[in-house]
Amino acid sequence: MAESAEFVATVGIDAGGDSCRLCVAKSGQDRVNLHVNRVSNRQTPALVSFDKRLRIYGEEAEARAASLFKNSVPLPLYISGLDKDSLGEYIKTKKYLFGSTFDKNNGAFSVTFDDAPYQVYPAEILSFFVDKVLDTVRKECEVSTSDGNNKFRVALSLPIYLSEETKKGIYNSLSLTG
């Protein structure tokens, strides 16, 4: 008889706006802990940057945003659920936030990673961001990275004004996270 998966915690992710917050309810406890990020006691900026050999996120990416502006992609939640045309329009309206070049033909951002040109898709950016944010919870709950996210139930809070198509696109992007 197969054993049912043992859940360590339920994780709520509020990724609305330009930052992210986590709430964690550990199994067997009657309280919810707020986990904000790995660096300080604040919310995590929703930003992913590409440096020489690193993908960085959150506060570190924000601190280095000036020097990595052309290799940074903000708002992973908002861009991951959009189709190529809608994403192109969204970037036009917020062009002051997007320093990396967006290729309308394939729907990818052009960045420099490991000293070479690299195409990165919005779904990959969101998947990386959420996985890194969940690292905070893995450490807190003492779950090894080999267990991945199998020990967590994850609930993602999405803004009500997002269309159902966008929400489905975000869900599909998160399936890359595991």
UniProtKB/TrEMBL annotation:
Pfam families: HSP70 (PF00012). Keywords: ATP-binding, Nucleotide-binding. GO terms for molecular function: ATP binding; ATP-dependent protein folding chaperone. It comes from the Eukaryota. This is Uncharacterized protein.
